[in-house]
Amino acid sequence: MKKNLFFILFASLLAFTACNDDDSTTSTPISIAFSVPSLNLTDDTTAVQLLFSEPTPSAGFVTLTYNATAVTYGTDFTTVPAVEDNKIVVPFEANVTSTSFAFNKLINAIEGQVKNVVFTISEVSFDTTVEGNTTIQLNFNETASLGAALAAEVGGATQPNQVYIDLSSGAMTTAPRVSWDLGFYSGSEFRVALNGSVKMSAKQLQTTNIDLVQEEDLTMIIAQGQGVANQIDNPSGEITGETGTAIAEISENDTDNKVYLINMGSNPATTAPAVGSEGSASGSSRGWKKVRILKSGNDYKVLYADINATTHQEITITKNNAFNFTFLSFANGIVNVEPQKTQWDINFTTFTNLLGGTTPYYFPDFVVNNVKGGAKTYQVLTADFTYDNFTKANVVEANFNNDQRNIGSSWRSTSVTGGDGVPVSQFVLKTDRFYVIKDPAGNIYKLKFTGGASESGERGYPTFQYSLLQ
Q: pTM of the predicted model, to two decimals?
């Protein structure tokens, strides 16, 4: 295939320089070009070829200049011949139709990074023209990160942020927890998720009239051990089936799509709590809404209002298959929250869980994995393997499952026994465990938490490290 490409390109160069004049005494300079306009660097060493339109009349050289993006000569790449004064001089023999130089890639681009070098033909030692591919761009191929040590910026003890981590690139995306209210599923089913990070709940009413005035229902408020299980989304991350979401699957039949009373949950606290305590759920109430959701072709049609309103607003939500959800803020419309569904693995967040499968319970310092995008996890105890000695050969594929809570809050505890025997609020890192994570691309990492509090003991400062298993 490479030989065929060479002859095709060579023929193209000949065509470039063919003379249409019948006067055979007219001399056309030899032309030169790179064989291709760009290359993706999949090997450690790549031959970069330049082609002449006809055999060279004598030995000589081609001088190339270059521009590098996010890479440095000698650190990230080298060449043979070597670069001198920001130029590379490539020799050639007499009576040849090509020459080349070696490009040595010393580092890969981590997924999501742009790293490349562009070479340009600047001078040839005899009379020639530069036609066709006057430059070539060498792109460093993407690879998964080998690992890193990161700190998720959830914002301290009030934990106002959700932080999405992409292990293969090391990228972190932060969104305020209060920036969204409902998530509209992009999959084949029409499902709507609640913002459980602020303790939202939803209750189906027996009306389809969004403009009827409704009243608050205090039994819907989520507190520690208070609330109704079927008024929150399934905390496992399951989105389909009868127990997937508190809001039923949106029906083709409009009369089946009832109005829902929405408890908007609570804001983070505005003042820092006592050291060792958390303030993520102790802020003011976010109020109440009513909402009715219909199908509109392959879109969602959303009707919403304050509960005492007799008119409503409408918005259309279009599915975007690149993302798990499209997010709606009642105050600000459609908002950006999650990265694309294949570009994050774990999310540091606060979370509404179920204890015993029946009792809503709110957790700070929670970590979910992106099951809808294909990221799966499981826990390993150090009694079975140490973190340092755990290898890819020790991974048990059967241990991965579709529950997004496999990390959850299991990496920490939140109290110690005081001198009087009474528990005292304090962050405690569990060092007897670590986690195995498979990302949507199939890369497998081991991850351990290294902290969760500041030096003064303030909660909301999670740190962790991870390594690619190869």
A: 0.80
CA dihedral 387, 392, 397, 400 (to 10 degrees): 40
Q: Which residues neighbour 50 within 8 Å (Cβ) at sequence distance 6 or greater?
A: 32, 33, 34, 35, 62, 90, 98, 99, 100, 121
Task: Locate CATH 2.60.40.2030 in the chain.
Answer: 2-142
Rounded-to-integer distance, Cα 2 and Cα 17, Å? 23
User: pLDDT confidence of 12, banded at 50, 70, 90?
Assistant: very low
Encoding tokens for residue 442? 């199939």
Q: Are strands 142-143 and 109-110 parallel, antiparallel or unpaired?
A: parallel
Residue 325 bridge partners (DSSP): 185
**CB 51, CB 151: distance < 8 Å:** no
Give me the phi and psi of 465, to 5 degrees please: -135, 155
Which pLDDT value is given to residue 333?
97
Question: Which residues have C-beta within 8 Å of that of residue 434, sequence separation ≥ 6?
Answer: 379, 380, 382, 387, 390, 446, 447, 448, 449
Distances (CA, A) of 156 to 3, 26, 140, 313: 60, 78, 38, 36
Report the first-to-last Cα separation within the chain, whole angstroms.
Answer: 31
440: three-class secondary structure by DSSP: coil
Query: Closest by alpha carbon to 199, among 329, 349, 337, 325?
Result: 349
**CATH no., domain 2-142:** 2.60.40.2030
Decide if 375 contacts 400 (C-beta within 8 A).
no
Please state, in angstroms and rounded to a whole number, the distance separating the CA atoms of residues 470 and 460. Answer: 32
Distance of CA 149 to the CA centre of its chain: 17
DSSP letters, 384-402, are T--TTT--GGG--GGG--S
